[in-house]
Amino acid sequence: MKRLRVLLMILGVAAAAVFGPACDSDVTPVDTVTPADAAPVDTTTPVDTATPEDTTTPIDTAPASDTIDTTITDPDTQLGPDTTQRDTEFGPDTTQPDTITPECSGSATRCSGANAQACSAGSWVTVAFCEGSTTCQNGVCVPTAACTNGTRRCSGSALQLCSAGQWTTEQTCINGCSNDQCKPNPVYVVLFTHIEDNKPAGVLGSVESRVSYLKLRSDLINMGEAARRNGVAWTLQADWKFLEAARLFEDASTMASTGGRNILRYLRDSLGAVIDPHSHESTVYNYTDVAYLLDQLGVGGSTVVGGHIWDPSLPQFAEWDRFRVPVAGRKYPQASWRGDILMGAATPNHVNDPTVSSVWRPRNRGSYFTDDPTGNIVNIGGYKGDIDGVSELWNLGKAGTIASSCILTSTYHITTANFATPGNLAAVERDVIAPLVSLRVSGHVMLTDFTSLVSTWRNQYSATGCVYQQ
What we know:
The protein has eleven helices and 23 strands. It is an alpha/beta fold. It is elongated. It starts with a helix and ends with a strand. 29% of the residues are buried.
């Protein structure tokens, strides 16, 4: 405390020396004279000095005993060490340092507005600013929820499901998406005609056979024109006898009505018909021979086995599995052919044909209705073979009874007798073609051929083997 008092005294004296005396409210101010009236002032006459308290008196005029050295020196050297104990004077210092309470602990996280924060050394630290398409949740920036979990929507042909607040594709809809669900798959229907091995009538080369052939030729043109007129696909599958008759009777006079082309080329190239082999193999001709004849007539290339007996317990069993490798002809042994698309799984006279739809690869003779993904022969189910069956299939697909990953298939056989007369052909257009066209307009049906159907199955249904059987 002594040192403090001395320092204050020194500072006070020094201040007075520098700034002069403090203003005294009792000191009479010096009169000021305006410049115009000012009388000459004798500058030699000293101004009245202030009272002894006036600190304007020079310091060195004070008595020697009052002189204070204004030089600041080390108090310890000048005055000796300060031995005054503060504790004695003021008592012990019992003040405790402030305690800082941590804002957080551990690895805690939180959201502060759009800031994602994490705990670091007991304090909250912003680690990210969630903006744009993100939102802060539990201290982490996450994509802003775009939907309500569990809801569905259509995005083009994709059916999307909301999961974790984001849209994800649940399924690609083969037939399109509408009203937040996939449209039911269409039924792929093939209209086909078989020309059996007893047509034309009579012995080949005879007048009877020529007349019969020309009549059938005209009927086929009428059917082909009806199919084209209605915009539907139609497949013709002919057995050996009709093809051999075509090689005999398609001369210049016969082909004059078809632009110089034989009947099969005319049906395919001008009317849009699809030509496949068909064989009962009940004579020397087998499927390879029929395929060879189609080649000779300029309409070869199909690998469809146009009908077969599937049941190995029957004597007429077609041994369909032999087509896993090329098969040589019997009538024309130089020919080789391998069919890889089966249709028309049947029984003799169609008395116990299986009711089955979709496409699959039969595993073997004993497991015909089991799909083998490694198999190299596919089979197309014909279902019930009528118009009512087509609508039934579509409803089964819509109800989910048949998985949406499965292609729905049906066939309809238009016999040669069905278009043998103008009245019969008109009935086919009215009772078969027109209803199918109407179903096609509504999206329930696709009219196609066997080869195109298998291509659709591979490309749009990922070659998913299915068997729907009743």
